[in-house]
Design goal:
single chain, 228 residues, alpha/beta, Alpha/beta knot, Trp Operon Repressor, Chain A, five-stranded parallel sheet, two-stranded antiparallel ribbon, 6 helices, 19% strand, elongated, binds adenine, methyltransferase, transferase, EC 2.1.1.228
Amino acid sequence: MRIDILTVVPELLESPFNHSIMKRAQDKGLAEIHVHNIRDWSTDKHRKVDDYAFSTTAGMVMTIEPIERLINHLKSEREYDDVIYMTPDGKPFVQQDANTLSLQGNLIILCGHYKGVDQRVRDHFITKEITIGDYVLTGGELAAAIVCDAIIRLIPGVLSDETSALTDSFQDGLLSPPVYTRPAEYKGWKVPEILLSGNEKKVEEWKLEQAYERTKKIRPDLLDEEDM
Ligand code: ADE
């Protein structure tokens, strides 16, 4: 999978992909991430990429031209499955979206800044608009990094068995059950007996029950009414 990220602050994306599992995914050739500075595609001598909004609302808007030039350049080199725009007024990103996107080949992700991009960019180039939550960040870069992380870890071969994505919270519609490690007792705080029993069937039942109870308490919105 190849992801091209379009931004006016490429520095913000220097770190997230250069460590741990994201780095390993790239080293193994399972994912390629290319960060592009939209300013490099401006023809303005000051590398300007924004302008005043046609309205009374204060704030700058990202202009069409440099973005169009960069997107067209990328599209002339390869096919893209989606051109995603990170924006607080997009569709909320959930695990199912990560699953779907992890099966794609090439993606472009445009990070919004200032008051966002000219609506015509959204109308003519963007195929998906994504928000990572109901709060406003200073730009789409950190949101893009989150989406990339969620997608890339699902690519087969990226995670080892111990970190398998199959047991993640949300994959089965429930939050994850609690986990414990050694020691079995610490300051009198005991690991639940069942986990030490060696009875795999009972342990699985316990985990499902715990996952359900945790979901009911913390995220009842994830449960159907008949599950409650
Ligand atoms: N840009 C600013 N806020 C954002 C959010 N919540 N999600 C995605 N992109 C954003």
